[in-house]
Amino acid sequence: MPPHPTGRPLFQVTVVNQQLDEKGRLKHFLTIENLSRSLLIKVLDGAERFAPVGERAVKNVPLLRGKTVVNLFFEPSTRTRTTFELAAKRLSADIINLNIEASATTKGESLLDTLRTLEAMQCDMFVVRHQNSGAAAFIADQVAPHISVINAGDGRHAHPTQAMLDMFTIRRVKQRFEGLVVAIVGDIAHSRVARSEIQALNTLGVSEIRVVGPKTLIPTQIEALNTRVFHQMDAGIAGADVVIMLRLQHERMQSALLPSAQEYFQAYGLTERRLKLAAQDAIVMHPGPINRGVEIDSAVADGPQSAILHQVTHGIAVRMAIMSMVIGAQAMAGGG
Ligand code: CP
Fold it and tell me: Pseudo-torsion of CA 51, 55, 56, 58, nearest 10°?
């Protein structure tokens, strides 16, 4: 899998409905791009039905009993890997977490050989996080027809399940998408979350999407995606209903794009004072992991307007919904 070349225009890894079967059912979940509003609403409604499972004494349903899910995480993760594991367990699937650092990958086994090996163990679903943009789509192309692939974050390209749990969180609090002003703040350039969120917010029909950050962290073509660009934080969040803060992704930066963390916080950090500029009932979101004192002040991260931990909880129900949808398409196609 070649790395996503730097300096190329963004959003170039286009998956044209590779993720839908011939009947329009979700076979893989690789990107929000090209998914219809009705399909996104179906995911959100499915998650609403699964959310109460987590409140029960017995936190599982038998929907994926007998199915085997493999978590294939080539990059670190706390929230995504764990909530996929919990989601699979709550659906009664068997789940394997392949420890890449302790796997034969370290002995030189190729990605394709690893896939073939896992396929030979009769798996039904791969949940993939990879540092290269397009990796999940590549894997979906290579796997046997009965296997579904879910993208758990690929390079700078997409993090579609994170976007859907963020949409779920917004809908739960605001009850709607129409009329909302959503500001996404920080390292847009390296953020697969921002890319997937912008696609989802556009599809679901919010009124205004703002991207806020220094010139070095805002992709040049972003306005073509129906966004407004702000380089001043105060103006960018003024009146916003939802403020989504992003982590600085130093691991994807190829050169120093910023002054010090302190100066960044001065210019773009979300403080209690700044949050007062947003709508009075604005919510604050962050996909995590958060860097306190870099992009967000602790008083805001832990404050009454923060939805950050709700996002984590919602990740389980949203991933249950997506996993059951892709396995449902498999079953309809005779694979289950
Ligand atoms: N939001 C997110 O992807 O977090 P993790 O890296 O912990 O999975």
Answer: 80
Task: Tell me the residue ranges of DSSP E strands in 37-146.
Answer: 68-73, 94-98, 125-130
Q: How far is the CA of 126 from the centre of ligand 1 (A)?
A: 17
**Is ligand 1 within 6 A of the CB of residue 77?**
yes
Tell how far the Cα of 43 is from the centroid of ligand 1, in angstroms. 20
What domains can you pick out in the chain, each with its CATH number?
Answer: 37-155+313-332 (3.40.50.1370), 160-305 (3.40.50.1370)
pLDDT above 80: residue 328: no
Give the span between the Cα atoms of 293 and 264, in whole angstroms: 10
- 287 CB less than 6 Å from ligand 1? yes
Percent of the chain past pLDDT 90, that is, above it, reads 82
Buried b (16+ CB within 10 A) or exposed e, 273-285: ebbebbbeebbbb
pLDDT in tens, 188-207: 999 999 999 999 999 999 99
Q: What is the DSSP string of 156-199?
A: TTB-HHHHHHHHHHHHHHHS-STT-EEEEES--TT-HHHHHHHH
Burial class (CB in 10 A: 0-12, 13-18, 19+), 127: buried
Tell me the C-alpha distance between 205 and 40, whole Å.
Answer: 12
Residue position matching structure tokens 């307007």 = 305
What does the pLDDT average to over 153-178? 98
Q: Is 148 in the pocket of ligand 1 (CB under 6 A)?
A: no
On whether the CB atoms of residues 244 and 286 are closer than 8 A, the answer is yes
Instruction: Give residue 43's identity as a one-letter amino acid code.
Output: V
CA of 334 to the centre of ligand 1 (A): 33
Mutation test residue for ligand 1: of 71, 72, 79, the one with most atoms within 8 Å of CB: 79
